[in-house]
Write a structure and sequence with these properties.
single chain, 421 residues, alpha/beta, Rossmann fold, five-stranded parallel beta sheet, 16 strands, globular
């Protein structure tokens, strides 16, 4: 039974949508506030759908979509709109990121049919494994060796990497290779309600302190994995620092973080003393675009997993499709590759995935790329490398370089390089 989250400030419309979806065989979860919506999205199983009003208590559909992207969730969001004209609706779906819309006056006619287009049976959805997925790059082999080395110590660790690179899987691997496996391991998200609280005048201590202290007490002798530590606000940072610095709990902390954390430390929006206490050791996971040799084995793994889960014959990827995968910049990294492969499997009739079966997401955030043009003394070589990787395709080379096609065309003329196609 597919779950559908309904986020709407109107109690009567929440009841109406819940009733319609229940009768259609779905399991609706109705909330009216942004924080409640985030909590429910974080618990959603594969194949679920989000139905969100354009505006609701504490947020908007656009903000919820942006939060999903930042956290790496890709549940389709259907927006409930109020009498928008066609141009405004196009903006909601293209720039807003909604996959479809429902007109509020036509909820009873449009809701079930629209949700049905995006809800997927759980057995047709792949979930990233808790363990590490086999890869063949030397970079990843080095990471495995570093995991073993760090796991043998009791040092706190920060695992750095962009969204979708598998930071949590590496963090779990450190725990599983450590001497603390017989003790508890708790996984917390720094941006979730699990660490949110208010001051309690009766105890004289903040609820944030009580909650975090409680997690350390439950985890005595074990490990706490704090996902997305860059999302810790200053109050949470202060409490965590106090506990680690003054109470010295017998708990190892493994944090995961976006590379942005380093800039936050420099800007003093993340406490340097807490940063260095957490980063007694570190692992840096490169983006997938820096290890293109991993794309083929990862794609093969996802194809095999889907075949095993569904009992279907495993599909193959032809050379042109694989080439398209290898030149894509992968802003969503391994998680995005998994979604692209699954989409291709579900939309390919034959036993082989062709280039035309590969569909990349169009509304992706701009990602800093290793080949981005920053230094004039080396950018000519960077351009030549990007062109070589893309067979002189200007559009794909521009995406790989992290610049616009117009900028790249200007640079090609400036350096007297052949434009290609």
């Amino acid at each position: 039974m597919n779950k559908v989250i309904i986020v709407d400030a109107s109690e009567s419309d929440r009841r109406l949508m819940s009733g319609l979806l229940t009768r259609a065989g779905y399991e609706p979860i109705a909330v009216d506030k942004m924080e409640a919506a985030k909590d429910e999205v974080a618990k959603l199983p594969p194949g679920a759908v989000v139905v969100a009003a354009m505006k609701f208590t504490g947020g908007t559909a656009q903000e919820l979509i942006n939060w999903q992207k930042h956290e790496g969730y890709k549940f389709p969001v259907v927006a409930v709109v109020d009498n928008l004209n066609p141009l405004e609706i196009a903006d909601v779906m293209k720039d807003g990121g909604a996959v479809n819309i429902i007109q509020r006056p036509a909820i009873d006619k449009q809701l079930v049919e629209t949700v049905g287009k995006y809800a997927r049976p759980e057995n047709s959805v792949l979930v990233l494994a808790d363990g590490l997925i086999p890869r063949k790059s030397k970079t990843f082999s080095d990471i495995l060796e570093t995991v073993k080395t760090i796991a043998a110590t009791n040092a706190n660790v920060i695992v750095f990497g962009e969204s979708g690179t598998g930071k949590e899987q590496v963090a779990r691997q450190i725990f599983q290779n450590s001497s603390r496996t017989e003790s508890p391991c708790i996984i917390l998200d720094a941006g979730s309600a699990a660490l949110v609280g208010k001051h309690d005048p009766k105890s004289g201590q903040s609820e944030i302190y009580n909650r975090i202290k409680g997690y350390f007490a439950k985890c005595a002798g074990g490990t706490i994995i704090v996902k997305n530590i860059h999302l810790l606000n200053f109050d949470k940072q202060s409490v965590l620092l106090h506990i680690l610095e003054t109470e010295h709990p017998d708990v190892r902390v493994i944090g995961t973080a976006d590379p942005d954390l380093l800039g936050m430390v420099t800007a003093k929006t993340f406490r340097p003393n807490l940063y260095y206490m957490l980063r007694q050791s570190e692992i840096v996971i490169p983006p997938l675009r820096d290890t293109p040799e991993d794309i083929e084995p990862l794609a093969g793994y996802f194809l095999a997993e889907h075949a095993q889960k569904t009992g279907e014959e495993q599909k193959k990827i032809n050379l042109s499709a694989m080439k398209a995968l290898k030149v894509h910049p992968w802003p969503g990294n391994v998680r995005e590759l998994k979604d692209v492969i699954l989409f291709a499997v579900l939309h390919t009739d034959g036993d082989t995935i062709m280039k035309e079966d590969i569909s990349f997401f169009q509304s992706e955030p701009e990602v800093p790329v290793k080949l981005a043009l920053r230094n004039e003394t080396v950018e000519k070589q960077q351009i030549m490398t990007a062109l070589e990787k893309t067979d002189n395709n200007i559009t794909q080379a521009a995406r790989l370089l992290g610049v616009s096609r117009t900028t790249l065309t200007y640079k090609l003329r400036y350096y007297g390089l052949r434009k290609g196609n």
